[in-house]
Amino acid sequence: MPDASALSGPTGFVIIAPDLRCNNNCLYCYDKDKPQAIEDLPSLDEIVTRTLAVAVDSGLGRVGISGGEPTLRPDLPELASRLRQGGLGVSVLTNGRALRDRSWLEALVAAGVDHFHVPVHADHAGLHDAVTRVSGSFRETQEGLANILALREHVHLDLTLVHVIHAHNCNGLESMARFLLPYRPVYVLFSYCVIQAGSYEKYLDLMTPYAAVLPGLLAACDFLLQNGQAVYADNIPPCLLRGREHLCLDFQKANTLNIVGLKDFNLSESVEDAAMFQPLNAHERSYAQVCTQCAIKAFCGGLYQSYLAVTDSPEVIPYTAAEISQRLAARKCTS
Ligand code: SF4
């Protein structure tokens, strides 16, 4: 079995999705459109062996166990423990509902999980539950987060919070920032909703122009930064965050945040291996025509094809070489 114990850093994730089942049914979730061979799940041995092999190949020292909802797997503590023993840091990307059971949370932490990544869809139950389409999910996620906070008093436990932005919640971002701040996560991630190209027509009502999102997003980020809270924006190209590129996870992804994926793990027997690797979801991304003029195109993840498909003019403004030179020179002067 590959040994990942020599790998050092948490500066990247091998994201695995051993099971696409979920107890939420989020409006925007594209996993539910995938052909799922649920009864044909990979064995624990296969998941561990292949995950460690990908970690060794990619040099990444951390795995993010995603889904679907990974806490639906009763063997999640064993999976976490074996990946930890294989030398990886272990993160769990969960809706947090199962963590309202303190003993289940403690079992995961005892197995080696030291980071939870939890989506929060709104600052109140009505909208959150409307997005997940599960009544009571807001309360259960809040109870799970409260348990994480309580346990964090005693053990090292990282928490990151993600808020997926779409047409139904894009007007409340500053209020959302106020709601998330008391959790003091490692960072807050505002993630513009990804509509996969293959199914975007079904989700058009979720899409909203970047221009409609940006003022509220920047105000929310300012509020968090002013309160000492790290925050990033995801799936928004750097040129739309001009002057605030430090917020732009897409930019950082291209530079430092390595993510390789086994997202379609449970289809592993039926698809080419290459199709399981989704750095930057590259197969879903593309560039606007004007991007060919952009001086930083090589460092930009581009835009989702779904966004380009429904937007006549995608609002992006290329960087010129002169602009980049001026900004680098200005930075040198101030450093
Ligand atoms: S490549 Fe295109 S989307 Fe990316 S920063 Fe440049 S203009 Fe913007």
Automatic annotation (TrEMBL):
Cofactor: [4Fe-4S] cluster
Example GO molecular function: metal ion binding
Keywords, ordered alphabetically: Iron, Iron-sulfur, Metal-binding, S-adenosyl-L-methionine
Keyword Iron-sulfur: yes
SUPFAM superfamilies, per the entry: Radical SAM enzymes (SSF102114)
Name the UniProt record assigns to this protein: Radical SAM core domain-containing protein
Residue stretches making up the Radical SAM core domain: 6-230
Signal peptide location: none
InterPro entries listed in its UniProt record: Aldolase_TIM, Elp3/MiaA/NifB-like_rSAM, Radical_SAM_PqqE_MftC-like, rSAM, rSAM_sf
